[in-house]
Amino acid sequence: MFWLWFWESWFDRTADWAAAQADAGDADELAAIHVASFARGWDVPEMEDLLRDRAVIACKLMREGRAKPFGFAISRIAGDEAEVLSVAVAESRRGSGGGATLMARHLGRLAGHGVRRVVLEVDEDNGAAIALYRRFGFVEVGKRKAYYARKDGTRGAAKVMALEMR
Ligand SMILES: CC(C)(COP(=O)(O)OP(=O)(O)OC[C@H]1O[C@@H](n2cnc3c(N)ncnc32)[C@H](O)[C@@H]1OP(=O)(O)O)[C@@H](O)C(=O)NCCC(=O)NCCS
Fold it and tell me: To test ligand 1's pocket by mutation, which of 17, 40, 89 has the most ligand atoms within 8 angstroms of CB?
């Protein structure tokens, strides 16, 4: 039993990242990651409703060859524009390229649906997320004051970022 646990945890940390389409069957696990990542987490029914919405594109992050999700990216499409509603990687797996794998797949899927412009809001103090979005070519196009409720009860300003996909 110890070896099974050891192998599984070793595999979950070292296998390559992979990303795939998420659907309503992933709602439980993705809601748990959301709740652990944000001040106002989405519960399972909320997550399930989003994943069933035909205008919503969702991707999940996994280890190659495994089913368990460690993260997600969710966007809503309107015409040729999409808004990124949420992106998160499980805290214990951050900083190892999972977010980049997820965004690459997610933006590719949005482009495949005819999206030409992607917009999002991000807490201006969220260095990891801003680095991730800049890496993919997002630029700051605006700012919203006192937009975010943080876990510590304070409110943070949001950067509005956009990516033109050509
Ligand atoms: C934002 C988030 C999804 C990034 O996921 P990740 O798996 O850590 O991302 P990666 O390991 O692929 O790293 C992405 C970039 O962030 C940088 N980064 C990672 N952690 C960082 C940190 N703590 N501070 C600054 N930059 C950081 C990496 O160096 C990398 O930048 P590079 O491409 O220029 O090298 C993750 O931190 C997260 O889930 N945060 C909580 C939820 C959240 O804030 N979501 C965004 C809402 S807008």
Answer: 89
pLDDT tens across 84-141, in order? 999 999 999 999 999 999 999 999 999 999 999 999 999 999 999 999 999 999 999 9
Burial (0-12, 13-18, 19+ Cβ within 10 Å), 145 = exposed
What is residue 41's DSSP assignment? Answer: -
CB-ligand 1 contact for 94 (6 Å cutoff):
yes
pLDDT in tens, 22-51: 999 999 999 999 999 998 899 999 999 999
Is the shortest distance between the CB of 90 and ligand 1 below 6 Å? Answer: no
Distance 1 CA to ligand 1 centre (A): 34
Domain of 83, in residue numbers: 2-164
**DSSP code for 39:** S
Q: Could you tell me if residue 151 is left (phi over 0), alpha (psi between -120 and 50 degrees) or otherwise beta?
A: alpha
CATH number at 122 reads 3.40.630.30
Number of domains in the chain: 1
Distance CA 104, CA 106 (A): 6
